[in-house]
Amino acid sequence: MRIGTQRAPALVVVLICGISGLLHAQVNVTTYHNDIARTGQNTQETILTPANVNSSQFGKFFSVPVDGAVYAQPLYLSAVSIAGGTHNVLYVVTEHDSVYAIDADFGTVYRQVTLIPAGGNTVSSASNLNCGDLVPEVGITGTPVIDPTTGTLYVVAKSVVSGSIVQYLHALDVATLVEKLNGPVAIQATVSGTGYDSSGGSVIFNATQENQRAALLLENGHVVIGWSAHCDHAPWHGWVMSYNASTLAQEAVFNVSPNG
User: Fold this and answer.
1) How far apart, in Å, are the Cα atoms of 35 and each of 27, 173, 216?
2) What is the CA radius of gyration of the chain?
3) Which residues are CB-contacts of 48 (< 8 A; sequence separation ≥ 6)?
4) Alpha-carbon gap, residue 83 to 109, rounded angstroms
5) Amino acid 19: pLDDT
6) Cross-strand pairs, 179
């Protein structure tokens, strides 16, 4: 199965490509590029060959309109108990802060939730960030990660609430897209440092300038998240944080340049 995206005015169309009738044979894709080494390999592929990947057997299955640009890799989970049955599901997230659960075989949208907090809205690339790297808005950028054992999808969303930009870590049930683990939790951090944006010997995580572009990683019960910059606009630092996958409690924080 190959998954791609196509930009279009006011929406993004998700394209699912493959050989007709073979999606049931696919392995789960629960993390960016298939594994924690990000190799992109499907080592269990036994069907696709140069002979059968051709214009008559391999191509577009369906299109699904969604509410924003898709920069994160869609993820795939088989045999999910959803919508009164058992289905293979594609999870797609958008820069409009939406999460979709879509039937991977037929394109039916089973669930859609918005992760914009009450009274909030998405981040404007122009007016909020003055950065054109992601346009016209910034919501969910980094690829989520799924724990198939617990049926949990972890995702970071960026929004504007009461004039302030915030970032939250969400844990969603893969069948209902309802929040789990008493989530979401606001992402906040402070480290000791004398960097250019420090105050009183501390550097504070800047939710506005920090770009959560890197894919989330689930490893040994920890959700690991990384940040860099929007257009290199100051103030920003590289951050890496770890959260407990069972409680969403923050466990560790690393700032790569606290004194720089």
Assistant:
1) 12, 21, 12
2) 19
3) 19, 58
4) 10
5) 54
6) 172
What secondary structure, in 3-state letters, does 173-199 show? ECCCCCECCCCCEECCCEEECCCCCCE
User: What distance in Å separates the CA atoms of residue 58 and residue 47, rounded to the nearest whole number?
Assistant: 12
Dig out the tokens for 121 from the structure.
């809205």
26 token code pair: 């696919």
- At residue 54, φ and ψ (nearest 5 deg) are -145, 175
CA-CA distance, 139 to 10, in Å (whole number)? 15
Helix/strand/coil percentages in the chain, nearest 5: 0, 45, 50
Q: What is the tens place of the pLDDT at every residue in 157-205? A: 999 999 999 999 999 999 999 999 999 999 999 999 999 999 999 999 9
Q: Which of the four pLDDT bands, split at 50, 70 and 90, describes residue 3?
A: very low
Pair 20, 102: CB distance under 8 Å: no
pLDDT in tens, 17-51: 555 454 454 789 999 999 999 999 999 888 889 99
Q: What would the pLDDT profile of 215-224 be if each residue is shown by its tens digit?
A: 999 999 999 9
Instruction: Answer yes or no: are the C-beta atoms of 165 and 117 closer than 8 Å.
Output: no
* Rounded alpha-carbon distances, angstroms, from residue 108 to 102, 119, 173, 205: 6, 29, 18, 39
Tell whether pTM > 0.90.
yes
Residue 216 contacts residue 145 (beta carbons within 8 Å): yes
